[in-house]
Design goal:
This protein is 39% helix and 19% strand. It is built from nine helices and eleven strands. It has helices at residues 15-19, 28-43, 60-65, 70-93, 116-124, 142-153, 186-192, 199-208, 222-227, and strands at residues 8-13, 47-52, 99-103, 112-113, 128-132, 157-162, 167-168, 180-181, 183-185, 212-216, 234-237.
Length: 242
């Protein structure tokens, strides 16, 4: 443990990542790979929490844009994250990795209610804690949930596993000349309107001084490399790197 850079980490995995190339639903091969990598991190002795999105099943904002009530649509999106969490728990426990799913929306027969002190205790006992249902409130993204839970559990860092290899000054798909940052401050992200996380999540991390690492997790082994402190992706923090 003493050689590790971080003792407690939070990994944010979007629903789109779980869908793989299918774009919707859960790609079993991708799920199994993520489970293997998260298990590897846990076996390093790192206290590991995971926040999952639900966009592979239902995205609240998209539902609202098609005329649904926003609160109703966001609630459906929260339930989608629970499905992803149960799938990840199953994949982890089949590997012998002790896991607890904790939900911000009460559903006692499915998962434990999220209680901060209980979540911390699970982490201390070496269990992977999978946090689902966002913050339990509509109008808040799972990125905000990741920032909030990271602060609550005392995470040293938040890893955002995406399909892009870092933060760019423009959309690299539309602008091939876009420049990738190795490091950027929270304030620069907010001032430039960069799509790292939503503004609420960035502000929470800034106020609580929790660094964010944004990296491409589509290749095997990237999560473990990031947690071991290898230079990967883009670091977002309060202070520029000298």
């Amino acid at each position: 443990m003493s050689s590790l850079k971080y003792s407690t980490v939070l990994i944010k995995v979007s629903g789109e990542m779980l869908a793989g190339d299918r774009g919707i639903g859960i790609d079993t091969a991708v799920l199994e790979r993520f489970a293997a990598e998260i298990h590897e991190v846990q076996e390093l002795g790192v206290r590991t929490a995971v926040v999952l999105g639900g966009g592979n099943i239902f995205r609240g904002v998209s539902g609202a844009s098609r005329g649904m009530d926003r609160s109703q649509a966001d609630t459906m999106g929260m339930l989608a994250t629970v499905m992803n969490g149960l799938a990840l728990q199953d994949a982890l426990e089949r590997r012998g990795c002790h896991t607890r799913v904790m939900t911000a929306v009460k559903m006692d027969s499915v998962a434990e209610p999220y209680i901060r002190r209980r979540a911390v205790r699970h982490l201390e006992k070496g269990r992977v804690v999978v946090l689902v249902a966002g913050t339990g409130n509509p109008y808040f993204s799972t990125d905000t949930a990741a920032a909030l839970r990271g602060a609550e559990i005392g995470a040293d860092i938040i890893f955002k596993a995406t399909k892009v290899d870092g933060v760019y000054d423009a959309d690299p798909v539309k602008h091939p000349e876009a420049r990738r940052y190795e490091h950027i401050t929270y304030m620069e992200v907010l001032q430039q309107g960069l799509k790292v996380m939503d503004a609420t999540a960035i502000s929470l991390c800034m106020d609580n001084d929790i660094p964010i690492v944004v990296f491409d997790a589509s290749e095997a082994g990237r999560i473990a490399r990031a947690v071991k402190g290898e230079p990967i992706g883009t670091v977002v923090s309060n202070h520029p790197v000298a």
